[in-house]
Amino acid sequence: AGPFSFDAKLEREAAPETCSAFETLMPFSSKIVHVRWSGEGVWIPFGDRDFGLGYENHTSHPAPGQIIFYPGGISETEILLAYGGLDFSSKMGQLAGNHFITLTSGHENLMTLGNLVLWEGAQDIAFFICLITRTNLTRCGLRSLGRAGGVEFLSSPCRVCLALSSSHMRW
Question: Kindly report the CA angle at 159 between 153 and 161, in degrees rounded to 5?
Fold first, then answer.
């Protein structure tokens, strides 16, 4: 997101339907913009797009580094990343979104990313899913930085890259 990379994991057990719907979007690119009502967060608007999702693992108060998916209804469908204090709301009032991704590293860059979007405007974001194999590393434009504890560490020229290795993703 913007110039930053984060490690993350899909919350498959807590939000299986949301994770499945999100994976159908891959590869996906958009812009993140700053939230208007909720506090310290950035979001990807989807307008009135209907993914056929209900609520699962939903919250109005995602912690910094948690990503939620709002399936629409009262407000437009969206994905939101909390980078600080957040009370998920719209002009119609408080909302709840499905917590489906949790960042596992890079938290030290969240506030900087949020302020970048706040003060400099929308930033590019792109999501790619790649299986971590030597063949796919090159095809996806990824470069291996080595392995530790069975996890492949990657560097990517793209803004966001999700590489699946069991339950871990690399952004």
Answer: 45
* CA distances, 144 to each of 27, 118, 139, 140 (Å): 20, 32, 12, 11
pLDDT (tens digit per residue) in 68-104: 999 999 999 999 999 999 999 999 899 999 999 888 7
Count, residues in the chain = 171
Grouping H, G, I as helix, E, B as strand and the rest as coil, residue 110 is: helix
- Supply the pTM of this predicted model: 0.77
Q: Give the span between the Cα atoms of 60 and 46, in whole angstroms.
A: 19
- The Cα angle at residue 110 between residues 27 and 104, in degrees rounded to 5: 65
pLDDT reading at 149 higher than 70: no
